[in-house]
Amino acid sequence: LEGRFSLEKRTGKLMAVFPRSFEAMRKTPGADLKSFASACPPFSITRYDNAAQFFEFVSRLWETEPPQPIWLPDLAALELAMSKVAQVDPSEDADAPDVEEGAYFRLRTGVEFLTAQYDIRPLLANPEADLTPEKRPVFLVVAPPAVSGPPRIFEVKQAPFDFLNALQGWTALAGVGTYAALVAALIENKIMEKNQ
Prior knowledge:
Elements: H1 2-17, H2 22-25, H3 33-39, H4 47-64, H5 72-86, E1 104-107, E2 112-119, H6 121-125, E3 134-143, E4 152-155, H7 158-165, E5 171-172, H8 180-188, E6 192-194
Antiparallel strand pairs: 1-5, 1-6, 2-3, 3-4
Helix pairs in contact: 1-4, 4-5
């Protein structure tokens, strides 16, 4: 009885993180929750940690058994990234930059980057619709809300995606070159912050 209750609690956490992809995940051979629970004992009580364990578990299965539908890994990865961003504490951005004089910027805490082979965003925007995602390379930035609400999802081209993904800590505004307009827009939309 205790084991069944524990599995039900864990299932609830997974469904909260993967509301759109969870049912499709269960069609993956070997991806039933009892097999997962047996192979991957929980090391944390948080939703995200349990979901990350489950995603890693099914990803190993997909290496030998192609997922059905084929876009399922992209959808699950995006929902997992959204869960990770949703747990970010905005106060983590409060520290002052330890930099030389001048204007500097950085990504807000919790911004995630995701590449996908399918544009799976419409599946989240229209959860009741029977949609087939478009197959094309997609570069996504998942950011905390500007004030409150769910995480925000932005598509960018590959070059600015690579630029943003490579940023580490505070960066001098003087060195952004052709990305000055992009950085200014991201600061205005509270995806980045600046020191002055």
